[in-house]
Amino acid sequence: MNSASALSFGRMSKIAARFVGTPSVGPLLVLLAFGLIFSLTNPRFLATQNLSIILQQTVIIGTLAIGQTLIILTAGIDLAVGAICVLGTILAGKLANSGYDPIAAMGLAVLACSAAGVAAGSLISGLRLPPFIVTLGILGIITAALRLISAGGAFPVTDEFLGWTGNTVRLNGFIVTYGVIIMLLLYGMVWFLLNQTQWGRHVYAVGNNPEAARLVGIPVGRLLLSVYVLAAFIYGIAAWLALGRIPNADPNALQTANLDSITAVVIGGTSLFGGRGGLIGTLIGALIVGVLRNGLTLAGIDPLWQDLVTGILVIVAVALDQLTRGRR
Amino acid sequence: MSTLPMSTGTKSGTVVRSTVAGLVFFGTAFAVTAHASAEEVIVGLVTKTEVNPFFVKMRQAAEEAAKAKGVKLIARAGKFDGDNEGQVTAIEDLISAGAKGILVTPNNSTGMLGVIKKARDAGVLVIALDTATEPADAVDATFATDNFEAGVEQGAYARKALGDKKPVLAMLDGTPGGTVDTFRHNGYLKGFGLAEGDPAIAGSAITNGAQDKGQVGMENLLSKNGEINAVYTINEPAAAGAYAALKSFGKEADVMLTSIDGGCAGVRDVKAGKIAATVMQFPYKMAAMGVDAVVDYATNGKKPSGFVNTGSFLITDKPVEGIDSKNTEWGLKNCWGD
């Protein structure tokens, strides 16, 4: 934090080139700057308990944003992310409440989420329909299905396993939930896939230029399908994490998760045009949104300012992406 | 995208520079604000949404009460009806901010039990406003309209005003699963003297308490059954939508349209004869009493408990015998919103 704040403006513009070359550095500076500001306004901000709470608050959107990042890297977009996750919570909650083994119920729920990914991926890769339209359609279908499945009601979840991800554990005096640990593990695993495997290189290649990727022999259709299925599988895991955070499967939940996850991805420096960006930026992007909301409340300022600042950050992030694209 | 001017290194440097300058500016502004409010008693208010005039009134009343008592109010809200996550997050932040008491209108009666327990364990007084939790003793106290009773008032009036006509009822519900929705719906049926599933109920529609959806719902129900002569509505915006649909079918004079809330727009609709009667509730009472209770707790350590009915009253210009009501003149003096 000190090194970031001690930089002079002159040196700032000199390293601007490297800054934009590594997409997650800019978001990191913004995150640290907000952290500094909020810790000055209210010393409670830096209390370990408060920092732990911010992490817990990031769990659902942060996890959904992993899948959203994968899809956006392929120059796609997923508007059904929240609906698929709620499908998972409702199925798990309903099945467990009607006597199913909770582990089987959660497993089935994750499978159902993955199936939604198969549907989206097949339509996008097979029929070459635009992801925006396909996922908008799936959003509508699942929202209606949820009303039918739940008959309008919510399912309070009391089961130990389904709520387990909300339990806390102490790591070096820092209290976190299992949900936070699972989210970070998922980030680690998908980061590895993206950066250390051929599959990951193909994701970037397809996002950059699908035609060129096809010409060098990358199976573009199969790759897109795998991306949508993996993303939806992660939304299923996010459903489990959501039940841990709020032990109540509610068909009305997560209505803004699609835009919230896209916001995290964009603030994190991933390009909406595909092929550029990465997961670490997304995690930082999700944390920026959480830090803003929490810090403003601690400072006693109307959190409506959060939406305003988030909006500015989204535009700045996209502008930076656009500017650096022009240079290449 | 190719039409945008291409940049140079200096240009993105400028962007970085102005971003940092902006952050520094924000920081200074925050630091000043926060400094002024060091040792105050903090009261948190978490409403369902920022857009409903009911909650706007609640927030205004809480702000006035907080000002009068010299305490600091921090208000937060969910983003949409049913946003549990947003409300849980808000309560967590308020605990971190050191709130002495938190007033909450839960979006879902069971959705936030965990975080409410966390708050109470941390010594924070938690009072539910408007909507009870399930179980009700999850919070220290509940200051609310008895929504079942309000539903009974609406239903009883509608049945009586309908006279000898054989009832054919349409129900415009709010958000399925909401506590308030269930209480009002069931209360109406009790007051009307019908059981759930009675063939006299022609159908129901989900409105989310919004005018546009109330209109669509009413249109569909009228298409389904043209004999409808009584309409239950969850709130006045839904009733306004229903009225527009009834009018387009030329049935506005033959249908007993009633509602609940007591918003000023709704009372004006009663005065104009669009809605026959509405049951008024008092959000400013809930909020003001809530702030007072937190201040009392902060100074004397006294906690309120149980359900405190903040009351409701039937507003109509066509009173029926045997049912207490006030006219719209009184209603317009006591309504909320614009």
UniProtKB/TrEMBL annotation, chain A:
One of its GO terms (molecular function) is transmembrane transporter activity. Coiled coil: none annotated. Its main location: membrane. CDD domains: TM_PBP1_transp_AraH_like. The chain crosses the membrane at residues 15-38, 59-91, 103-125, 132-155, 175-194, 223-242, 262-292. It is a multi-pass membrane protein. It is found in: Cell membrane. GO terms for cellular component: plasma membrane. Keywords: Cell membrane, Membrane, Transmembrane, Transmembrane helix. Pfam families: BPD_transp_2. InterPro entries: ABC_transp_permease. It comes from the Bacteria. This is ABC transporter permease.
